[in-house]
Amino acid sequence: MIRLERRADLPRWLNWAIPIGSILAALVAGSVLILASGNSPFSTYSRIIDRAFVSSGAFSATLIAATPLLFTGLAASAAFKMGVFNIGGQGQYVMGSISASAVGLAWGESLGKGVIPLMIMAAIVAGAAWAGIAGALRAYLSTNEIITSLMLNYIAANLGSWLIFNSRSYWRLLTGSGLMFPQGKRLPETSDWPLLGLGSVSVPFGFLVGMVFAAGTYVLYRHTRFGFEVEIIGDSPAAASYAGMRTRRKVLAVMAISGALAGVGGASDVGDFRHILDPKGLGQSGYGYTGIVIAALARLNPIAVIVVAVFMGGLDNAGRALQGPGFPAGLVGTLQGLVLFFALGGEILARYRIRRAHHRIAGPVASALAPGTDSPGGGRP
Amino acid sequence: MSTPTLPPPAPPAVLMSGITKRFPGVLANDDVSFEIRPGEVHALLGENGAGKSTLVNVLIGLYRPDAGTVQLDGTRVELSSPGDAIAHGIGMVHQHFRLVPTFTVTENIILGRQGPLKLRDAEERIRALGEQFGLAVDPTAKVWQLSVGEQQRVEILKTLERDAKILILDEPTAVLTPQEAHALFDTLRSMVAGGRSVVFISHKLDEVMAVSDRVTVLRDGRNVGTVETAATSQRDLARMMVGRDVVFSADDVEDRPAIDHDRVVLRTVDLHADDARGRRALRGVDLEVHAGEIVAVCGVAGNGQRELAEVICGTRRRLKGQVLIDGRPTVGTDPRELIALGVAHIPEDRLHTGLSPSASVEHNLVLKSYRHAPASSGPFLNHRYIRRNAGELIERFDIKTPGPQTPTRLLSGGNVQKVLLAREMTGTPILLVAASPTRGLDVGAIEVVRGLLLDAARRGLGVLLITEDLEEGIALSDRIVVMYEGQVAGVVPRGAADVIEIGLLMGGKA
Predict the structure, then answer these.
(1) Shortest CA distance to B370 belongs to which of A251, A246, A243?
(2) Whether the predicted pLDDT of A155 surpasses 90
């Protein structure tokens, strides 16, 4: 007989063991599916690992896939840390993309490479402002930020489509093939973000920027008064206002920070990869939503977000590269789903411990799962 | 009043033998045996964490013991759910009532009943039961219209209506005036006179002495002993509970703080405020606290005491009136203003308002000082100072914690309160507003907290002690301010305090 008992506290090692265990469990479950499809799990996994991390150029491609996830993962964890549920990473990503491409189109020629910091700045402002709408509504009118930020995603997506497909906007290519097929203007090449060679691996500039932001977020949340306030407000808003913290302002600030991070992701999308405003591609990517998964797997730790983003980016990259006969279509997506599934299952292990019940009195022991408030564990000396 | 009916001896109404219940890291009940005779009021006494709740939860079928058996009237039973316990005639009145406010008394009592029933018949039955046991309450009234005391009667009626032979009451007097408590005791006596048994869980030794026939004391999950109430004393019980002698009443306190009558650290003038639901909670409160003085605010819960503390500390807006701290008028809209003026505040909900439960002990100890040096410099926290500060306070206030980084919610109630007091007493406060600072604590911790309040007054702070425990108010304070319906119903100076008179003031009957 197995039963669950509420944990008083989460041991440190489980912070690592649970995500890693979830991934391993997902691989085991995935191998059942691979066997069912008539393939060898071992060779399939070794091909995935090869195409994600090992073979020539693989890791560079993985970093490209990981870069957007890094930003949206950071965005989600920055907000979720305070219990503010910013589901609007996707919309903020789109707004960052729109503003960065505007800046690139306008000043790419005249400023040369100097336009890159400007693109980042513009994306920060746009992402923060877009998230700030939901933040202000939550802070001052107590609306549910999950709903408002989610709805703003649709508005941002429609704004992007309108700029390219339904208007003669500044972003739209109105000459040549653009007359036949609606598309965005190519940004001047000076606004392309550089690829930095590190041995055989080329690292997108955006990925480096993301690592800097990850470190910055870590320091902000761990070592500053602001981070202290975020911790307290996230845990107990009543205690925060009792101590004189300005909780509303902090909600707004955290939403803005989260939106800014997602926005820079949008700028990197334009600067590193697409070089045009591509609302359809942005919409199909769903990076904003994947970011939530990344943040959850990273247990909201910004440094862990880097690792998880590279892992998930690697799966994406390998999936794209291996698609075709002999490789089950959709396998990678299924694996990603399984990883999330097991990670959420692993949360149960984080909150409860499994014990084998020794009871001399027969019968089911579902009732042994004590309600938290009544558990004497809470009153332990 | 259990007259031994010999021969043959009647089997005990309840016999729990060798109950052992383990939780992660805690042995909540360790081979506990507990016997309840028919027709007795049996008090269950023990500090928090002593295992009372666990034992009772086994009896009401909420927990299954790891070892041990339960017999009812000499027959072994398996209680695997609360439904089983009810079917066996075991009823419980929880500390927090489980009533639907928008339903009538009768609807609440018959809630969950199956089969055909006539509301009118049920009302009659409830009315009759109420008369029989002195539990007067209108069966057709909606529960939200009832006072707390009346709601408790509904809970008791609920168990009687289900024909409970064994009634368990968890801290039933915490919400009652002394008069209501005595009425409850009369009810309990009439219930046991009819052959029922009552288990009375309480912290208050005087009540245990007044109402029970026998007392069982638990400590650290073990049964320390069961004694006849008539053959014991408060002091003996306290010693059994804590395992040593305890300083108890005000008479034991020598060296009372000296009051500086020239310095008024708190003055409220015509204070008006609403409660959280927008109903008027304060209707013109005037009071004063001098430096070195302890003023107790007594009253039945919900008469504005909580709001008074919040308004003084700036966490609740006042509608009208003025709060002067050390003679200085305040704006009263920002807790920071009052913190800066030297107002320390122990809020009623200490773990969730006074502290951030999941944050570490060291962070909670700088919850109000993190904004300034030395806890932070510029935007950055000074982790080294925060750690050192925690080390010093943990030692000075003897806070039992595995370490400074332990989440505060994992500490015992007494240590949680020590963390809060340690933080509030650092710096240079001039006024301490403490709302129910000993509620829910065990005897040992109550002693410590009361000692800290007296220390605060000795250091020259004014102390406003809001308490529902009249004994505590009388023991500690220089003056007692009684509140009723948002107003000061009377002020009783030390020495002239008379429980009956104060009780009448608390009930608005003076």
Answers:
(1) A243
(2) yes
Q: Which residues contact A196 (CB under 8 A, 6 or more apart)?
A: A202, A203, A204, A205, A208
Contacts of A358 in chain B (CB under 8 A): 66
What 3-state DSSP class applies to A39?
A: coil
B425-430 — which CB contacts under 8 Å span 24+ positions?
Answer: B425/B344, B425/B452, B425/B456, B426/B365, B426/B369, B426/B393, B427/B342, B427/B369, B428/B342, B429/B342, B429/B343, B429/B344, B429/B456, B429/B461, B430/B265, B430/B291, B430/B325, B430/B326, B430/B341, B430/B342, B430/B343, B430/B460, B430/B461, B430/B462
Residues B398/B418, Cβ–Cβ less than 8 Å: yes
Please report residues of A whose CB lies closer than 8 A to that of B371: 225
The Cα–Cα gap between B128 and B145 comes to: 21
End-to-end CA gap in chain A: 30
Do B31 and B19 touch, CB atoms closer than 8 A?
yes
Residue with tokens 């049964």: B223
What would the mean pLDDT of B353-381 be, rounded to a whole number? 94
Evaluate whether B79 touches B88 at the Cβ level (below 8 Å). yes
Q: Which residues of A touch B315 (CB under 8 A)?
A: 241-242
B383–A223: do the CB atoms touch at under 8 Å?
yes
In chain A, which among 314-343 make CB contacts under 8 A with chain B? none
Contact B64 A368 (CB under 8 A): yes
**Are A76 and A258 a contacting pair, CB within 8 Å?**
yes
**Average pLDDT taken over every residue of chain B:** 88
Q: Which residues on chain B are in Cβ contact (under 8 Å) with A226?
A: 379
In Å, how far are B58, B176, B304 from B282, measured between CA atoms? 43, 20, 6
Which residues 225-254 of chain A have a CB within 8 Å of chain B? 225-228, 231-232, 235-236, 238-244
What residue spans of B41-118 are helical by DSSP H?
Answer: 52-59, 82-87, 105-110
Our CA angle for B501, B502, B503, nearest 5°, is: 90
Which residues from chain B sit within 8 angstroms of residue A5, using beta carbons?
Answer: 23-24
Q: What's the rounded Cα separation, in Å, for the pair A231 and B163?
A: 50
Average pLDDT over residues A336-354: 78
Give the residue among B404, B364, B357 at the shortest CA–CA distance from B375: B364
Q: Give tens-digit pLDDT for B254-310.
A: 667 788 999 999 999 999 999 887 888 999 999 999 999 999 998 877 789 989 999
A239 vs B51, B353, B380: nearest CB: B353
Q: How far apart are CA A339 and CA B197, in angstroms?
A: 56
Nearest to A353 among B24, B376, B383 (CB): B24
ipTM: 0.84
Cβ <8 Å between A363 and B64: yes
Measured between CB atoms, does A175 come within 8 Å of chain B? no
Q: Give the pLDDT of residue B254.
A: 61
**Residue A360 pLDDT exceeds 60:** no
Q: What is the pLDDT of residues A280-311, one digit of tens each?
A: 999 988 899 999 989 988 889 999 999 999 99
pTM of the model: 0.76
SS3 assignment, position B22: strand
Question: Could you tell me the two tokens for A315?
Answer: 């799966």
Asked if the Cβ–Cβ distance from B412 to A363 is below 8 Å, we say: no
How far does B495 lie from chain A, in Å, by closest CA?
36
Task: State the average pLDDT over residues A265-280.
Answer: 94
* Closest approach of B493 to chain A, Cα-based (Å): 32
How far, in Å, CA of A239 to CA of B214, rounded?
42
Report the distance separating Cα B303 and Cα B318, nearest Å: 16
Amino acid A208: pLDDT: 96
Q: How far apart are CA A219 and CA B63, in angstroms?
A: 45
When the pLDDT of each residue in chain A is averaged and rounded to a whole number, the result is 87
